[in-house]
Structures are given as C-alpha cells and as structure tokens.
Write a structure and sequence with these properties.
heterotrimer; A mainly beta (144); B alpha/beta (370); C alpha/beta (355); A: 144 residues; mainly beta; Rieske Iron-sulfur Protein; B: 370 residues; alpha/beta; TIM Barrel; four-stranded parallel beta sheet; 8 strands; 37% helix; globular
C-alpha cells in the first residue's frame, strides 16, 4: 500500500457494470463517491452534496441549459450536469463545480481512468475487495 | 464559508438530544388505499368522476413541480410506488436514519382540503384521518396525526374535529391555507373555536387552490415564481388571522405555520405595527399591536430552511422572531426537504438546539406529542 | 435639515391629486368630453387611498373643501417650500390605468399626463413627473410613452402595483423597450387595478390588510420581472418601487436565491441571483414605515439588505407617513446617505438636466 500522500488508483467498477447514464456508489479510503457513466466516459465526484448532504449518486444527469435570451433554451453537453436529488443544485460532472457558484461551491471530483485487466495485473493499484480478471476492463479512481 | 455549504453536522451524537419533526408527508399508493375508510357511494364517485379542483388538469397541479411527485429522487420505493407511501422505507430512510423521536404526519395527497364538492371533501378528509390512524400511527408510535378538515363547510369541519378528538394519536388540525376567503374571515371561526376547545393547535401547511391568482398581479409563468408566491400566501394568511381579530377573540389559539419559511415573520410584524396607527380606526377590536399577536399565537417550522448570504444572518433572524417560535421540520420526502444534521449553517448552543429540535414543539403540542 | 439645504432635496414620490373629472375635461378631445359628460364618468380616485382615510393625507395638510395635494399652492407651501425640495417627482394616482376599456383608459391617461404637464410642470420649475399609461393595451401604452418622452420633464413611467397580468410577462415588453430607449425608469407604485384579489387567499375585509399585503405584490412583480427575463433583455432598464417598504428584502433575497439555485434551469437566461439583480437594477423609495423599532435590529436589517445605493428619498406627500417639519426624521443615516441625492441622480438621468 502506498503512503497516504501519494496518488493511489482504486479499482471501483467493471466496465459494462454501470448502464449508460447510470451511477454506482463506491467507497474509496472510506469516502463515499458517486461514479457515473455517460456515453462511454466515467466520472467520479464526492457522493455528498456540499449543500445539505444529499446523496449525489441518486441525482439526475441532465444537459447544460443556458440561454442567450429569454425564451431561448440552449442545451449542450448532454447528461454532463448532475442535479442533486434533493434541492436540484447542478454540478458539472467533469469538474464538480456548481453551476450557480462555480468558484465557491464544488462537489469534489476525482480523476477516473479505464484500464484492461491485464494492465492492472502489473500494478500498482488498489483493488481492495474488488475481483479483477484479465479479460475485462475496469474503472479506476485516483486518490491522494 | 458560504451560508449554503455543508459544515460539521449540527446534531452532536448526543443520545439525549431529542428530535421532533413537525412535517412528514405520508401518501397513498393509490386511492384504493383509502377504500376501506370510505363508503361505496364515495368509492364509486371517485372512481368515476375523480376529484374536482380549481385547475385545468386531471392529475397535475397547475405548475409542474421541480421533480416527479415533488419528491426527493432518492425517496422512491423500489416497487415504484409513490415516495412517502411505504412506512418501512420511511422508517429506514428517515425516522431511523435521522433519529426522529416524534414525527408529525401531514397528509397532502390525496388532496381533500380544497375539493370543490363539499360532501366528497368531507368523505376524503374522514378517510385520510382514519387511514392515518390505522396505517401509520398504530403501527409506528413515533408518528402523530393531523386531523384534516374541509374548511369551507365549518359545520362539517367541526364535526370531524369532534370525531377525531375521540381517537388516539392526533396532535393538530389542518385546513386549507388558500381557501375561498382569507382564513381570518368569520365563516371559519367556529373551526378555530373547536380546535381550541379540544386543545388542538392549527397546523397550517401551504395547500390548495381557491381559483384566485396566486399573486395580486395575476398568475406567474414559472414554478420558480409560484413556489415563492405560495409561500407568501402564508404571510397573507397570518396577516388575515391577526387583522380580522381571530387571536384577539381566541387568545389560546396556536397557529403553526408549516413550510412557509420564517425569515418574513419579524418583518411582517414591523410592517403591520408600522401601519397600525393609521388604520387603528378600521380595526378598533384589536387590543394589542399586531406583532404581539404574531408573537403570542404563531409558530413557524424551519423548512424550507432560510439560506442567508452570510450564515450569521440566520441567527439574527431567529433572534428577531424568538428562538422559542421555531420548530424543526424535514418535509420528508419532498424535494426541498431539510436534513436535520445539515440544515442549520450556524453554530447553536445546546439550549438553542434542544428548543428547535424538540422543546419548542413539545411546548406547543404538549401531551399530544407524548 | 442642514444637509438637505446644502445639497437640495430630491423628492422621488409626490402625489398631485386630480380634483375631479371636471379638472381634466379640457385635456380630452371633443368625443371623450362628450362621453364623460353624457355618462357621468367621475370618481376615479383609487380605492386603496380613499380620500378620507388617515393614510391618504396628513391631518395638517387637509384643507376643507378640496382634496389634499390637489392644488399647486398647497403643494408648494406644505411640501416644496416647507422641506426645501429642489426636485420633486410627481406620481399622479388616478383611475386611468385601471379602466377596463383600453380606449377610455388611454384617453384618461393622456388627459392626466396633459393636465400634469400644463398645471404642474409648466408652473413650477422644481417639478418633474411620471408618465401614466394604459398598460392593458401595449400599443396604446407605447403611444403614450412616445407622446410624452420628448418632454424632458417626464422622468419615468408609472405603473400600479398590480394589473391584469404580471409585469414581467412578455406582452409588456414593448413598454420596457420604449422605456429603455428614452432612459425612463419603470416605477411600480403600491396599489392595484383590482383585477385579482389582493392576496392569494382572496379578498380581505380591511384596507389595513391590503396595505400590509402590498409587500407581497411587490415581491411577486419582482419575481416576474426577473424570471421572465426583463432585466436580461433590457440591460439599461431600471425599476423603482414606490412605497414598497424594505424590511421584506432579506427574506426575498434568501428565498429567491435559494429557488434560483434549484430551479434556474427553468429560467436559464437568469444568470445572476435574484438578490444580485435587485441590488443592481431596482431602487426603493423611502418613507419607510416597516423598520424594526430596535436600533440593533435596524443595523442588522440594513446589513442584510447589503446595499446603500438603492434607496430614493421621498416625502410621499400628501400621504401621512410622518409628522412635523423634517421628512427625514426617523430615517437612519445609513439609509439616507445616498438616498437624498446621489441615488436619485444616478437613477433618473433626466434629473441632471436643467429643463
């Protein structure tokens, strides 16, 4: 096991396990993390909404809605914004930034990589209790 | 720290800190859940004609809400039945998880308080009351009930209060907050007399559609507006009670304003007092300043929690209104509900916590909360 | 009063009273003169300021035989001269905007504006005025703005607190376009054309309750203007709330911002919090009668409101808001600082002109 200050990679899911636009609640070093799958990409942010603690893995993935003028709704980045399941605050799943207060209010985000099982066999990584097979691909969260 | 961000939980892991939740919303899986508590006549009526409200849609309120069924997205039972319809889930997700010692049921759906057909409204209110006892209060003694009555027919409402007063487990009386006339008007006074007679506070949760625009300037376009306008209707409700002279006539009446916020309480008192000198001649029956009735006869639930720009402003607001005037409510399982651990963004003393989380509610409801 | 004398008091809300239809009659064309005469159209004072009610006029400003504020001589001696007012903005509250017939409404508004111009503006250099408009018909309303905007002594457009539809709604936007073009703020005055019940809960029994509930109407109108995108669409437009009170602002800011965080996707053109928008774009007249009695609470309230450049001083003449000879009495220095002069001049660009 690496020292706590250094980056460690944690295998948290098998590719294919989380359906498109689905989520999985995982724990890494005791921290609850919401893992999302959008169009082949994976995103990880803290599961705890910085507002009142809503469980973000139950949130709704939606598009980024902006407007150039009243009555015009411009939808970009489909399903890359996460709305908290409680009060509807929006977070960018790539950065964890909140829409309304991007500089001051964030859900912590974590880097995610996808690796072949064969690569993982070479390490270093932390699988904890997660079984890994060389035939499959896996989702890893990086954490300091 | 922003006033809107998470900080250390308010509730210490102190097992002696009790928690009373003054607003929990149970609901039915479908209207069939009420059938055992209704006559064949009304079962058939509802199955055939449905309910009649002052709105355009069969099964939606006029303004689509933030979420389906107004609910937290994590509150849906696995079988897809509506949030709040599964006691076991409510116990697991809310009562047990948040350590709720007493929870006040507040049935909003099915809607009965503003049904236009008065006989039908009485039948549904009565069914909801019996259903609360049988399906919630008896199996789960932590829960207390709210007597729902159809206010537009005061005789019927009084009869239902008297019937329910003989049953176990009810702690308050609820009626619609957007009635045909403002609630201070005389047509409703008999209901308040009955509530006082039986020792029930009024629990007044924003509800109903009376056909009046939700603002004096017409109907808004957006839920963003309507949600706030409905909350403001409770400011008007409090004003009506006081200026029409209800608490002057019934000094023992307790009015708990549910789910309307509370930052408006003290400023409303200032406004009424500020105009009082000019209008005293119009309301000669008022013996005290309006703010004194507000202070004596009204209480507020915490949810939806006020979120000032600076956290300490919340403390100022509570100082202004009085720390004894506020009771915790979660609004479980609705989308804008509050978590007792994280809703308060200020540090509170043990005494302040004890008051807000239990003591104040116990003072209002007394042995009915036991 | 020294600070006022040194700088010249700007009074942003003065009410000249229409003595009666007879006074307006010369300002209608022949058709409408005949209609008014033949049908006895009169009695259009607005019901939320009944002439005899205490709120409607200070007792010492009442002169037997005429409505308070109905003559220039009264206004001069009781207010303009008495308080040392260097600029006063007339907001004429009369029934034109509340008529159901758009044509009659337009005719009365036009006559009212003409009467204000001829009987008041032309006779006292200190006076400025608001244009009243038949808001129920946008085309006629814009016509009325265009008619008076070239007269530089009309400095804003006056609306009642409540009409048929909420003021943000897009049918009204040509009015805001014209207002922005001419540099005229939109003022919303306490009151209602009574198209809807004064509260969401129906009709209260008393005038007292109506005046208490105006605070809710103002909040509803601000929410409408924000949500519909008026402030987004018209970036130079300013809105002035007259006789709104101010103690409801913190709770409005908090609730509005909380809802914006959760529901802003419904109104994505709103890209700042309601609190920020209001502080930037909305101004509030003082007199205030809704302040806390405790000075500490007052300091806290003003700190929560969080802006010292949003207040406009007014006497609200002849409405009875204060007694005695000092209209600033009871108003804390923190409120008055910029309200007496700087903020009015920043709000009304036309006030800087010597017309």
């Amino acid at each position: 096991m690496s020292a706590s200050a250094t980056l460690t990679r944690h295998v948290v899911a098998k590719v294919g396990e989380i359906p498109e636009r689905g989520s999985k609640l995982v724990k890494v070093k005791g921290r609850p993390i919401a893992l999302f799958h959008v169009d082949g990409e994976y995103f990880a942010i803290s599961n705890v909404c910085p507002h009142e603690g809503g469980s973000l893995c139950h949130g709704k993935l939606v598009g980024l809605i902006r407007s150039s003028e009243p009555g015009v709704y411009e939808r970009t980045r489909p399903f890359e914004m996460l709305q908290c399941p409680w009060h509807g605050w929006e977070f960018d799943i790539r950065t964890g930034q909140s829409y309304c207060d991007p500089d001051s209010i964030k859900a912590r985000s974590y880097a995610v990589t996808v690796k072949d099982g064969a690569e993982l066999a070479e390490g270093p990584f932390v699988a904890e209790t997660f079984p890994v097979s060389v035939e499959d691909q896996y989702v890893l969260i990086e954490m300091k | 720290m922003s006033s809107s961000t998470l900080h250390a939980p308010t509730r210490a892991k102190d097992p002696t800190l009790k928690l009373v939740d003054c607003d929990i919303h149970p609901t039915v899986r479908s209207m069939k859940d009420l059938h055992p508590y209704m006559s064949t006549r009304w079962r058939e009526h509802l199955a055939t004609f449905g309910q009649r409200f002052r709105q355009a849609f069969v099964a939606s309120t006029a303004f689509p809400k933030a979420t389906p069924q107004l609910a937290r997205r994590d509150a849906w039972p696995e079988d897809g039945s509506p949030p709040g319809s599964d006691l076991a889930m409510m116990q697991r997700q809310h009562l047990d998880a948040n350590g709720i010692d007493r929870g006040m049921l507040f049935p909003l759906f099915p809607r009965a308080l503003d049904e236009r057909n008065i006989d039908c409204a009485h039948a549904v209110c009565r069914a909801i009351n019996d259903w609360q006892v049988a399906e919630w209060i008896e199996p789960e003694p932590r829960l207390k009930g709210t007597i729902t009555v159809m206010a537009e027919d005061a005789d019927g409402a009084v009869a239902e209060i008297e019937r329910c007063a003989k049953l176990k487990g009810f702690a308050q009386v609820a009626l619609v907050t957007r009635p045909i006339e403002p609630l201070g008007r005389k047509r409703y006074w008999r209901i308040y007399e009955a509530a006082v007679h039986h020792g029930f506070p009024l629990g007044l949760h924003n509800s109903g559609n009376n056909g009046h625009s939700v603002t004096a300037g017409g109907a808004p376009s957006f839920y963003f507006e309507e949600h706030q306008a409905v909350s403001m209707s409770l400011h008007a409700m409090a004003t009506s009670f006081i200026i029409e002279g209800v608490p002057e006539r019934l000094p023992e009446l307790k009015i708990v304003v549910v789910e309307g916020g509370f930052a408006w309480a003290a400023p409303l008192g200032w406004r009424m007092d500020g105009l009082f000198d000019r209008f005293r001649g119009e309301v000669p029956y008022l013996k005290m300043k309006p703010s004194e009735y507000l202070r004596r006869n009204f209480w507020w639930t915490t949810q939806p929690m006020e979120e000032p720009e600076k956290p300490e402003e919340l403390r100022q607001m509570l100082d202004w209104m009085g720390w004894d005037k506020i009771v915790f409510a979660s609004d479980y399982p609705h989308w804008d509900s509050d978590d007792p651990r994280h809703a308060f963004k200020i540090r509170m003393s043990e005494a302040e916590k004890r008051g807000i989380f239990a003591g104040n509610a116990e003072a209002i409801y007394g042995e009915r909360l036991a | 009063m020294g600070h006022i004398a040194a700088t010249g008091l700007i009074d942003c809300d003065i009410h000249p009273a229409v003595p009666g239809m007879k006074a307006l009659l010369p300002y209608f064309d022949a058709h409408w003169q005949e209609v008014i005469d033949a049908r006895g159209v009169d009695g259009l004072d607005l019901a939320y300021y009944p002439p005899s009610a205490p709120i409607s006029a200070r007792p010492d400003w009442r002169v037997p035989g005429r409505k308070p504020g109905s003559t220039l001589a009264d206004m001069q001696s009781q207010a303009l001269d008495a308080f040392g007012i260097s600029r006063g903005i007339l907001n004429c509250l009369y029934g034109g905007p509340a008529m159901y017939s758009a044509d009659l409404s337009a005719a009365i508004c036009r006559a009212t504006n003409a009467w204000v111009a001829a009987e008041w503006l032309d006779k006292d250099d200190r006076l400025r005025a608001s244009i009243v408009i038949p808001i129920q018909n946008t085309e006629l309303a814009v016509d009325e703005i265009e008619r008076w905007a070239p007269n530089r002594r009309f400095v804003q457009i006056l609306l009642l607190g409540a009409h048929e539809s909420l003021l943000g709604q897009r049918e009204h936007w040509p009015i805001y376009k014209a207002a922005e073009k001419h540099g005229l703020p939109i003022a919303i005055h306490a009151g209602s054309a009574m198209r809807h019940a004064p509260t969401a809960n129906g009709w209260p029994s008393t005038l007292y309750e109506e005046h208490c509930s105006f605070a809710l109407t103002f909040q509803s109108q601000l929410l409408s203007l924000i949500a519909e995108g008026v402030f987004t669409k018209f970036p130079a437009l300013r809105v002035v709330l007259l006789e709104s009170g101010i103690s409801w602002l913190p709770s409005f800011f908090w609730r509005g911002t909380k809802m914006w965080r959760g529901m802003r996707k419904e109104i994505p053109w709103v890209d700042a919090s309601p609190a920020a928008i209001v502080r930037d774009r909305v101004r509030f007249s003082l007199q205030t009668w809704d302040l806390p009695p405790d000075p500490t609470q007052l300091d806290q309230l003003l700190e929560q409101i969080g802006a010292d450049d949003i207040f406009l001083f007014s006497t609200d003449y002849p409405h009875w808001r204060f007694d005695g000879g000092d209209p600033t009495r009871g108003l804390p220095p923190a409120l008055l600082g910029k309200a007496l002069r700087d903020t009015p001049l920043a709000t009304y660009s036309r006030l800087k002109e010597t017309a």
